[in-house]
Amino acid sequence: MAKKVETISLIDTFSEFKELKNIDRTTMVSVLEESFRSVIAKMFGTDENYDVIVNPDKGDFEIWRNREVVADENLENPNLQIGLSEAQKIDASYEVGEEVTDEVIFANFGRRAILNLRQTLASKILELEKDSIYNKYIDKVGNIINAEVYQIWKKEMLLLDDEGNELLLPKTEQIPSDFYRKGETARAVVARVDNKNNNPKIILSRTSPVFLQRLFEMEVPEIMDGLITIKKIARIPGERAKIAVESYDDRIDPVGACVGVKGSRIHGIVRELRNENIDVINYTGNIQLFIQRALSPAKISSIRLNEEERKAEVFLKPEEVSLAIGKGGLNIKLASMLTEYTIDVFRELDQAVEDEDIYLDEFRDEIDGWVIDAIKAIGIDTAKAVLNAPRELLIEKTDLEEETVDEVLNILKSEFEEGEPEFEPEPEFESEPESESEPEAELEPEAE
């Protein structure tokens, strides 16, 4: 009865193994055979004289042992040798030096051997499953997948694919306004596959620029067909993105194709990205024109480039500066990311105003030297240049406190306000006191 139970147990093991996904028949047979040989080697010291035949379709197997026939008095290793008298019980024609092959019943090895086999199989099955998951997803890096939200934690979210494989979507890879409930379907791109200690972890991302690129490829057939190419992408997830596209067909407007009629194509992408604003611009190899397009909707007056340091000084009319910077500095930040140039924005001044400028070093009595040096370090060395630079830009570039920047601006403003009457007299305020004082002078004698 015990042998029957053990045999059934082994058959169950085969059936479990047979149901594994993504494992071919050859691999399955090989692993089963290797597991049997591993157990035999542990029991007898070697498995070289054994033939293991596995039939996974039926869930059975055969083990045959090959031994050399030796004289009874010369028998030293019963695993490798068989005595002549014993061999002749199997077949009377056997002689010394011949080889005897007889079937071994694995169940006769005992419960410990069967348990050892199951543990060995379980370990190898686990390794195969991990290898299978790793090989499956290493080829999917950069592709979008849909998965079911299974568990939500503070720092990450666990998702399951169609085959029940576990995927991770860290909080850092989620759009800030993302909100999911258990059982919902989430869409993300496979960012990477970590395989530390043969324990694969599939990391997803919704903040990667690749995610935005794949969404455009899904929504815009011209991109999939190769007629339009996405050249560059800059994203601040959940806030705003800029994408530069180029067409290889002069008849196709790449921006219009990506946006769609009345925004039909881009609206679906915007919804998926939690209402992230997306600017689509035409790519060009002309860096000045590219920077100009990247800073849209602002209209640039002129650009001064430093190609070695990859810096650009952009001059705009005062009313265009806020458009170039954008809310919270997003527009200029994305333009810098897209063009890979550090962009500094300046208000355009006429020559008369520039002639009235004063070097910052003249203010060292009123402004701390280290503050002046911090401002000069970003390429601004005159008072008018400071006043014409956006306040947010000064704070970000100099790393000065807001209060310090405001104090500097107030000191510089007061300097130019004091000098204004000399150049721009205001007669209306000077004439009023004269008209009032003359009548008073005439009235006094009459009163006397």
From TrEMBL:
Name of the protein described by the UniProt record: Transcription termination/antitermination protein NusA
Species of origin: Bacteroides oleiciplenus YIT 12058
Domain Transcription factor NusA first KH intervals: 206-283
UniProt-recorded Gene Ontology molecular function terms: DNA-binding transcription factor activity; RNA binding
Keywords attached to this entry: Cytoplasm, RNA-binding, Transcription, Transcription antitermination, Transcription regulation, Transcription termination
Family annotation (HAMAP family): NusA_B
Principal place of residence: cytoplasm
SUPFAM superfamilies referenced in this protein's UniProt entry, alphabetically: Nucleic acid-binding proteins, Prokaryotic type KH domain (KH-domain type II), Transcription factor NusA, N-terminal domain
Pfam families on file: KH_NusA_1st, KH_NusA_2nd, NusA_N
Domain Transcription factor NusA N-terminal: 10-131
InterPro entries found in the cross-reference section: KH_dom-like_a/b (IPR015946), KH_NusA_2nd (IPR058582), KH_sf_prok-type (IPR009019), NA-bd_OB-fold (IPR012340), NusA_N_sf (IPR036555), TF_NusA (IPR010213), TF_NusA_bacterial (IPR030842), TF_NusA_KH_1st (IPR025249)
One Gene Ontology term, aspect cellular component: cytosol
Function: Participates in both transcription termination and antitermination.
Domain NusA-like second KH residues, every copy: 288-348
A GO biological-process term: DNA-templated transcription termination
Keyword Cytoplasm on entry: yes
Segments of skewed composition (Acidic residues): 417-448
Localization annotation: Cytoplasm
